[in-house]
Amino acid sequence: MTEMWVNMGPQHPMTHGLWNLRVKIDGEIITDATPVIGYLHRGWEKMVEARDFKQIIPLADRLCYGSSLTWSHLYVRTIEELMDVDVPERAQWIRVITLEMQRISSHLMWLAAVGTDLGSYTIFLYCMRERELFLDLMTNLTGARMTYNYVRIGGVRNDLPPNFERDTLRVLKLFEERMKEYEALCDRTTSFRVRMEDVGMLTPADAMNLGVTGPNMRGSKIDFDIRRDDPYETYDQVDFEVCVEDTCDSFARYRVRMREMEVSCDIIRQALKKLRDGPVRVKAPNNAPSGSAFFHVEDPRGEGLMYAIGDGTNQPYRLKVRSPIFVSVSATPVMLIGEKMADVPAIMGSIDMCLGETDR
Amino acid sequence: MTETSTRMNEEQIAEAINSKFTQGITSIEIAPRRIFLTISKDIILPLCTKMKDELGFEHVSSVCGVDTKTAFQTVYHISSYQNKVVAEIVVENISYDQPEVESITPLWGGANWHERETYDMFGIRFLNHPKMERLLLADDFMFFPMRKDYVVGRRVP
After folding, report:
1. Is B59 within 8 Å of A213 when comparing Cβ atoms?
2. Whole-angstrom distance, CA of residue A60 vs CA of residue A74
3. Is residue B138 part of a domain?
4. ipTM confidence
5. Which of A88, A159, B1, B99 could form a disulfide with B124 if both were Cys (CB 3.0 to 4.6 A apart)?
6. What is the pTM of this model?
7. How far apart (Å, rounded) are the C-alpha atoms in residues B129 and B2?
């Protein structure tokens, strides 16, 4: 049979956003693949050059609606590095708590999306139900459901609301019980495992060389987590496990995320115990000095990095965003070639696409 | 890539780089888990080859361009998983008239789309890149919008 190119996207149930996967198929075997992105390009990096530092915080939230707080945190942390601002310890712990809540809700949304990709609407509904618990906690804290605008240069906007610790512990207890239901639905279901196991192989060497980061990389036997190996905020005072799986397939990436959610619950508990009274925000300067700074964090999807150049004014001269999915999606041809056309949703679903940060 | 049992620290890596390259390095600074290098564009490829083969840098975090209004710069952030160090390399003085620099994509595949994006936004060409085409913008877009002389709000024909 002759080979042919098939466009999966820009409008396709598999894509989770506006992008196009061109695959070349011979029968039903994929022989070549080209991801095409840029449909959602908003000129973010140019746009911020005409905004002052405070105005960029809500814009950074919009880089990814699924984990908006990690992006505004990364932006704020980069500018703090540039301006040399020290954040009070209570604010750092609050950031750790909110970041981990964001990680759980982001992973839950990923699992919901994978559920629908593989035809299990039950997983979708279960995950969205539990995600709402965490969104309620965040709403209570920040006033918004998804784009929080909560982190500030020099701390966070407001202190924890009354009974936040009690509510959080209740949610964590409930969530950990329901995680067992997920495992019964996914790990112990043949239809889920058959779709996910042994597809989308990514060798450790490829994962490193092609720049795949985060849970996708840890599913390929690489033991690296920026939270542990280059700690920021107060992660160095938290004792947590870095989840690594060694089967290198889609199922390994799924297992890494499931275990990370449990670890995140544990981190939140430790952080709540270590939280002490104190200020949550210090005054930060309006203008950045001339010079440059970069910072990288462990986003739920991988390594997020920002590089900022200041020129003495209250606007950044240049602000570069390194999006984890931008690089991971460029590595997907390696995972796709040789697989069957019908496995594309299972492979691309395991990457956790987010177009807002990819196209910027 | 060889597994080293002991972690090379920033000072040892900076010393290894400094002793190998007598010319081309303008400045070299270190901070905890960070190395900051400023170099000329002639040594970017030999420097990166040495970093990858001998100093254990496995991962390109980012490649980006900067328009300084007199010349271009390209900035690389390269990480080492085994040594837990991030190196920031600034390549200075890439002229407006001939914006070209050697590609590091043959060494690290992760730099591929970053370099294409830099070309897309600044018009800096990366030599020996496998596919030096626009990535985010349309193929027939007539400008390089991240250059400082591209004013936002201009009408695009």
Report:
1. yes
2. 9
3. no
4. 0.85
5. B99
6. 0.89
7. 27
